Amino acid sequence: MATRQKAAGSPGAFILLGPPGAGKGTQAKELARRCGIPQIATGDILREAVRRETPLGLEAKAVMARGELVSDDMVCAIVEQRIKQEDCKNGFILDGFPRTMAQAERLDQILTAAGWGRPKVIYLAVGMEERMRRLAGRRGCKVCGRIYNIYDRPPRLEGRCDDDGSELTRRHDDSREAVVRARFEAYEKETAPLVRYYRRSGKVHRVDGKLSLEQVTREVLKLCRAYDHMQSKGRA
Ligand code: AMP
After folding, report:
1. Which atom of ligand 1 is nearest to the CA of 97?
2. Ligand 1 centroid to 44 CA: how many Å?
3. Known catalytic residue: 66?
4. Which of 3.30.830.10, 3.40.50.1820, 3.40.50.300, 3.20.20.70 would CATH assign to domain 12-217?
5. Which residue, among 159, 138, 133, 157, has the nearest Cα to 148 in the 3D structure?
6. What are the pLDDT digits (tens) for 78-121?
């Protein structure tokens, strides 16, 4: 595999951890815009594959509809390919990956082999009630993917994207209570232990995800600068 060294001062690899509804997607988009690096959201990539009925999408569709996790091999292959692309040369933001211990271990190997070193790990902490409310209010633009929340960040015109006027839709897996519950359960069982895993090998920045979008972004960027400083001193 071709290796890349993170150029001095480039943002590098980020991981956004947090349960469904914590705001990872919204935050990842904002960070991506500010840092000039792409957001890599495995959920978005899989939903697009389902929509286009690719072999990957056909395999993932039923599992996603139940709110369960697709296979580690499938998502690891997606991420491994994606981060080799040219737009990732200064870094990338992983949103919704890794989600299991096996994915985290595989990611470590991928990042080390590609010369990325330790990722910056950010954990967005948000309580259950607020997450439920966010999932209930979440709407996304069918065309550009911009995320709205009908309670906190509604579009100017109901049901339409501010940027391109396209229809806003609700995710299938947000609208069925049993599926939302399955996603929360998968998070608690498979993904929550990753916070401890990353703590063992370095620092996990815990950010209060209940703050406003702008405050969370500011907090994350501030922490990341501190993180770079620690890394340069060999303490992260
Ligand atoms: P998300 O958009 O991150 O909420 O992901 C939506 C769905 O895609 C999840 O409920 C899973 O079925 C699947 N998915 C996304 N990322 C992963 C992953 N890293 N591992 C396993 N399944 C995933």
Report:
1. 19
2. 8
3. no
4. 3.40.50.300
5. 138
6. 999 999 999 999 999 999 999 999 999 999 999 999 999 889 99
